[in-house]
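Lecture notes, unit on protein representations.

Consider one protein chain, 131 amino acids long.
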Amino acid sequence: MTKALAASTAEIRTDVRRGLAVFFALVVVLWGTVEAIWSLNPEMSILVIPLMWNPAVASIITRLIFKEDFSDISFRFGGLRTLPWYALGLAVPTVVGLLAFGTAWLTELVGPLYSSARPPRYFARKRSAAA
């Protein structure tokens, strides 16, 4: 009985390692593709969206490659008792983002529409002060 359990544990570990290797390889390939496109077109700030969705897409592709179903992932809405948790899940990242980016914008460390073509005023003042 113990040998069978040990064998199944070893198989599970091998499967997990294989799955993680495929997942991380997909993340690197997808990320590199989007970054390459972005480096050719630095004004395409909309490419942030595929970068954020990259891990989710890699996870779905990995599950499809290994023919795993999605039944062990709970995306079900639990009615009114889970509504506060969904609200918290939306509110916390929003508040953290507003605090972080709001502070950076108010202190002019970055501009609200910063791109590689137009550096923020903060760096321009630093350069002119040093000259």
